[in-house]
Inverse folding.
């Protein structure tokens, strides 16, 4: 690693508890630009909590988190919304907003109080809906579309936010195969544009292996291993963390590990 390149996200001795129940313990982590990072680990290992800590939704009791070398506690919500966008694991919106309104919410941090929204804001929202194949649902209410369609709308909203860091929490659980490929392609493309890094929590180890340059394996709130899919998805670590003996094979076309039943 070139030592001139600075991490865009760093966590130093980060510890976080929910009402005295530790969720993240003594985590040290540096994330560099240009990477697709996958976070994996069993249920309750702290994956969602890490995303919430990085985006400033939660504040650690101990340690320090920096984004672009700035302490997250000192970044205002509005400024943070221009840096990080998040596709949440589950998002229930009680009001039946139209799809186009939800995607447009991604532009709110950029709207100048005096000038109001501009044509560019609408154009960016439109592009995000087009990319995620959500445009034909634009006039529908969010309660009138399927789980997979909804996931694409939340991805569209996150893209409309023109983030430097894009974070996703199990974004693909309801997507069918063709949309999985399509969305991954869009995410990868965004890394060549203004998005500096993508951090995604994965439930599906095979998808994590397929998407990620680097994997972070969490175990009971701590980092068990960071490395390439090969370095992380192997018998030793999966047995240690998931307490089961996995069958690991090589992908027939790509040089990545895949886990089969
Ligand atoms: P993961 O995303 O890996 O499944 P989480 O980060 O959601 O795990 O949770 C880590 C731990 O913190 C779990 O033990 C979970 O039960 C607990 N936890 C998560 N959210 C809350 C909350 N809002 N209040 C109390 N405990 C929580
Ligand atoms: Mg989670």
């Amino acid at each position: 690693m070139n030592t001139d390149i600075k991490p865009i996200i760093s966590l130093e001795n980060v510890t976080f508890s929910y009402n005295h129940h530790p969720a993240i313990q003594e985590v040290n982590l540096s994330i560099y630009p240009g990477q697709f990072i996958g976070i994996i680990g069993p249920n309750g290992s702290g994956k969602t909590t890490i995303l919430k800590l990085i985006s400033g939704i939660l504040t650690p009791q101990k340690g320090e988190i920096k984004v672009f070398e700035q302490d997250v506690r000192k970044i205002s919500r509005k400024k943070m919304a221009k840096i990080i966008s998040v596709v949440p694991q589950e998002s229930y919106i009680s009001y039946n907003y139209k799809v186009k309104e939800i995607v447009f919410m991604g532009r709110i941090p950029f709207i100048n109080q005096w000038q109001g929204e501009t044509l560019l804001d609408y154009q960016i929202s439109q592009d995000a809906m087009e990319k995620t194949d959500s445009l034909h649902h634009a006039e529908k209410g969010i309660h009138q579309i399927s789980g997979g369609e909804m996931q694409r709308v939340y991805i569209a909203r996150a893209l409309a936010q023109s983030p430097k860091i894009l974070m996703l929490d199990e974004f693909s659980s309801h997507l069918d195969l063709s949309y999985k490929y399509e969305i991954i392609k869009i995410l990868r493309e965004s890394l060549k544009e203004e998005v500096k890094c993508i951090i995604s929590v994965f439930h599906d180890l095979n998808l994590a292996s397929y998407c990620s340059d680097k994997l972070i394996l969490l175990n009971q709130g701590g980092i068990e291993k960071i490395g390439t899919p090969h370095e992380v998805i192997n018998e030793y670590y999966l047995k240690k963390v998931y307490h089961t003996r996995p069958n690991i094979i090589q992908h027939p076309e790509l040089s990545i590990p895949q886990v089969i039943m």
